[in-house]
Write a structure and sequence with these properties.
By secondary structure, the protein is an alpha+beta fold. The chain contains seven helices and five strands, in the order αβαβααβαβαβα.
Length: 188
């Protein structure tokens, strides 16, 4: 297991298309979900849940994505439609992090949304700690009501991210990070 600080300092997203199988084992999947659900959660509301896409189920979900795509773009070429059908089949494992944030007497909705973001980030980091690559993306279908209904989301639920997980064939180049002097100021 890589040193925790080294992992945090060097993590990079890997494009879904570059994430190969085999994906995590059942025991590793349990570890991923355990870490993802161990996040700060004001009021212990558990304002998030996870949907796992593996194997053929990734293409079954893709059927809903391509149906929504076709209704938007009836003249789309067959290869474009096929790419949409395979959206969730690029990586061996995709985990949707679903926000269940809503109005509450005490806990602001914003804080519930932040907790879902923390769950997604913990999931990404757990994947890296297990030696996998990961990518936290949403893409257009995360915002399509037809796709969300087909994936079983309720009215109040939203996609925080589709976290794609697999094995990275190459180490990605780093990208520039914001200079700390620009993003961190000392209050005085
Ligand atoms: C909520 C959320 C949604 C995102 N959705 C996308 C997306 O749809 N497509 C994309 O290319 N990157 C998306 N990203 C950005 C990637 O996760 C990633 O941060 C980016 O590729 C930069 O790579 P890095 O993590 O190595 O800095 C999203 C990030 C967040 C936090």
């Amino acid at each position: 297991m890589p040193d925790a600080l080294e992992l945090l300092k060097t993590r990079r997203s890997i494009k879904p298309i570059e994430l190969n199988g085999p994906g995590p084992s059942p025991a590793e999947l349990e570890t991923l979900l355990t870490v993802a659900s161990r996040v700060p959660d004001h009021g212990k509301l558990v304002p998030w849940r996870f949907i796992i896409f593996e194997g053929e189920a990734r293409l079954a979900a893709g059927a809903a994505i391509v149906a929504a795509f076709r209704s938007k773009y009836p003249d789309a070429k067959p290869e474009q439609a096929e790419a949409e059908r395979r959206r969730l089949a690029r990586a061996p494992l995709v985990i949707a992090v679903v926000s269940r944030a809503g109005p509450h007497v005490k806990i602001p909705e914003w804080e519930q949304v932040l907790s879902a973001g923390a769950a997604a980030m913990n999931l990404v980091l757990a994947a890296h700690a297990l030696g996998y690559g990961a990518s936290w993306i949403t893409e257009w279908y995360a915002y399509d009501s037809g796709v969300l209904a087909a994936l079983g989301l309720k009215e109040n639920e939203r996609i925080a991210g589709f976290v794609h997980i697999g094995r990275a064939s190459e180490k990605p180049e780093d990208r520039p990070r914001p200079p700390l002097a620009e993003i961190a100021t000392r209050f005085s």
